[in-house]
Amino acid sequence: MEFIHHPWPWYIAGPLIAFLMMLMHYFGKGFGVSTNLKTICSALGAGKHCDFFIGDWKEQRWNLIFMLGVLLGGVIGGSFLQNPEPIQLSETVVNELEAMGIQNPGANYIPTEIFSWDNLFTIQGFTFMILGGFSLGFGARYAGGCTSGHAISGLSNLQWPSLLAVIGFFIGGIISTYLFIPYLLNL
Amino acid sequence: MRLLKFLIAGTIFGIILSKAEVVSWFRIYEMFRFESFHMYGVIGSAVLVGIVFTQSAKRKELKSMYGDKMVFIQKDKGVKRYILGGTIFGLGWALTGACPAPMFTLVGHGFSIFLIVIASAILGTYVYGLIRHKLPH
Fold first, then answer.
1. CB contact under 8 A, A109 and B24
2. Structural domain contains residue A99
3. Is the ipTM above a cut-off of 0.90?
4. Does residue A138 share a domain with residue A65?
């Protein structure tokens, strides 16, 4: 039972993710979560005025159901499988986040002072949640995939475009982390 | 049954993302600060095992459970869309601390505020669809 509640190390999680990708191929499909965002647009009728969203979204039903499972996995992983201990973050990161006003970094999965309904309509909350989410969706479709489609499946398939996309992920991530986040946390 | 297996696969994925703390904003921050090996280990080992699998599946022409050849999608050629799109995605990845799968897992954890992140991501996808002809690809 110990193992169930402890966080899983990278060398367990990484190969398991690869195994899951293999399973999806065995099921005759692939591994790509952000496609669901496009499918949702199609299902909501975006195809009526934009040809990008034309197509039978029902063919993607399997992927929507996969995504529902990803949520359900959170219900299980966030309740009785959850580790009661705080996340073991690097000391440098803990100190630096505390200095920027984040209380008890790692006590929860997310910094709840940023990600809360109360904070949604501040400049800080709007940028972290709404602009952040918008860039995820916009960027994933522009690049033709997200972490699952490019970083995992694409690199496994030795695709140059996926390597370029992953380099892009890090350029963007570094810009946000070193420029935007320190600025926003000081607001 | 045809669809149930995808629900189970997704559930396993959500549990892995939770148990390995990939859904944590703090882990993503730490990754972009280059202060921990954890996330590089997760992604790196997934890719290494994934390469062995994908390359041998292609060479041996492995079949899916339905008897068809497994499909490995070739991404279109190009540079700009991958660098620019990837960079925009990365901005959002660091801000929200989540990529598209974890944002759903976090709702499962009870963080209902991530419904706002999901709705914003759907809006972002929609706006891309509207203006994609004006963007360099």
1. yes
2. no
3. yes
4. no
A48 in a structural domain: yes
Question: Measured between alpha carbons, how far apart are the two ends of chain A, in Å?
Answer: 44
Provide the token pair at A76.
Answer: 């299980």
Give the tokens for residue B71.
């499909």
Instruction: Report the distance separating Cα A18 and Cα A16, nearest Å.
Output: 5
- pLDDT value at A1 more than 80: no
Chain A contact set for B124 (CB, 8 A): 37, 133-139, 141
Number of domains chain A contains: 2
pLDDT digits (tens, 9 = 90+) for A111-132: 999 999 999 999 999 999 999 9
Q: Residue B69: phi, psi to the nearest 5?
A: -65, 140
User: Could you tell me how many residues make up chain A?
Assistant: 187
Q: A118 and A66: one domain?
A: no
Query: Of B12, B27, B111, which is closest to A73 when you measure between CB atoms?
Result: B12
Q: Is residue A87 within 8 Å of B27, Cβ to Cβ?
A: yes
- From B133's Cα to the closest Cα of chain A, the distance in A is 10
Query: Which residues of chain A have a CB within 8 Å of the CB of B8?
Result: 69
Among candidate residues A121, A150, A139, the one with its CA nearest the CA of residue B87: A139
Domain that holds residue A176: 114-187
- Candidate from B18, B53, B71 with C-beta closest to A22: B53
* Each residue's pLDDT tens digit, A18-51: 999 999 999 999 999 999 999 999 999 999 999 9
Q: What residues of chain A lie within 8 A of the CB of B16, using their CB?
A: 8, 13, 16-17, 20, 73
- Shared domain check, A122 and A51: no
